[in-house]
From TrEMBL:
This is Bll5862 protein. The chain crosses the membrane at residues 128-149, 155-176. The keyword Transmembrane applies. It comes from the Bacteria. It comes from Bradyrhizobium cosmicum. The keyword Transmembrane helix applies. Keywords: Membrane, Transmembrane, Transmembrane helix.
């Protein structure tokens, strides 16, 4: 079964296929709470029972423009909502408008219900620090290689290193910038983490 953006009513429900095999993950915002159906399981979480939401930017090889929301329940349990849906073995389609509308509507319903959920964006602080440390070590190593290539007259090698560094910065820079750890409020959902 394919899930397209046209099938998703504006804001109140959302569905996506997390994998090629299996049923769609379906979510609906009802007066009682967040209703979900995932892989034969279902539940209803009242808006005031949702303890946390974490928004992040999570590109993958098949879809470089993918966003994720992790919704946690006060009694335990977590559901993941992705902005892309598997359509075929070679196509992962974005569902940008449906995802954005649903996440904004979820925040509005939670605010109206008086939720005290923890709202965070980006990677965890420890993970983000590890990513920055890795990038710093990589930058030092690439600078050393560039200096070495210039010293021995390998201008083609130096040009390759510069090109690789520019491509890497372009690809990874957006991920690092968007996933900077931060807290936000119900009325200020970070636009950088919505499609």
């Amino acid at each position: 079964m394919q899930v397209s953006e046209a099938e998703v009513p504006s804001g109140e429900s959302y569905a996506y296929k997390a994998s090629l095999i299996g049923s769609a993950h379906r979510f609906e915002l009802t007066d009682e709470g967040l209703s979900w159906h995932i892989s034969g399981r279902s539940g209803l979480w009242r808006y005031d029972e949702i303890s946390a939401i974490r928004l992040s930017f999570r590109p993958v090889s098949m879809q470089q423009h993918r966003f994720r929301a992790d919704v946690s329940h006060a009694g335990g349990g977590r559901i993941r909502i992705l902005s892309t849906s598997w359509q075929s073995p070679a196509l992962v389609a974005p569902q940008d408008n449906g995802f954005r509308d649903f996440i904004v509507a979820l925040h509005a319903r939670m605010a109206k219900a008086g939720s005290r959920a923890t709202l965070t964006a980006g990677l965890g602080r420890t993970t983000y620090a590890a990513v920055l440390a890795f990038l710093a070590v990589l930058a030092v190593a690439m600078t050393g290689l560039l200096i070495r290539a210039l010293m021995i007259g390998e201008f083609a090698g130096a040009l390759f290193i510069l090109g690789f560094a520019a491509l890497f910065t372009w690809q990874v820079g957006g991920f690092v910038r968007r996933n900077q750890p931060q807290s936000y409020s119900f009325d200020r959902v970070p636009k950088a983490l919505l499609p």
